[in-house]
Amino acid sequence: MSDNYMMEREEIHSKVMRAGRRTYFFDVRATKAGDYYLTITESKKFTNDDGSFHYKKHKIYLYKEDFTEFKDSLDEMISFIIDEKGEEVISERHQSDYKKESAQGTDIENNDSTSSFTDVDFEDI
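and the corresponding structure tokens:
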């Protein structure tokens, strides 16, 4: 095998970001010409019915000529989301401190149930 082929396959610099069932891999690689590019891989773990698991992977190849526009677009979209919805995670299953509680463990049972709810007649709507 040629040195160029090995250089293309070699990861020059890598970073891993774990996010629940997803893992993101950021890898700097070299082209045959010796220039660098970035691959971003999302790997998501799925559990089969029999308890075994498999991963699905999606990969993006990002070349230097696209860095500025890609970064600008990513920054714009992130800013839009934060401006519209704030930084708080709304989906409870994505919150790191989320714990599913049973109705017995909530304060509703300890309070007068009529003070926690409002009766609404469908004809009023």
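(Above: one complete record from the training split.) The first helix runs from residue 3 to 9.
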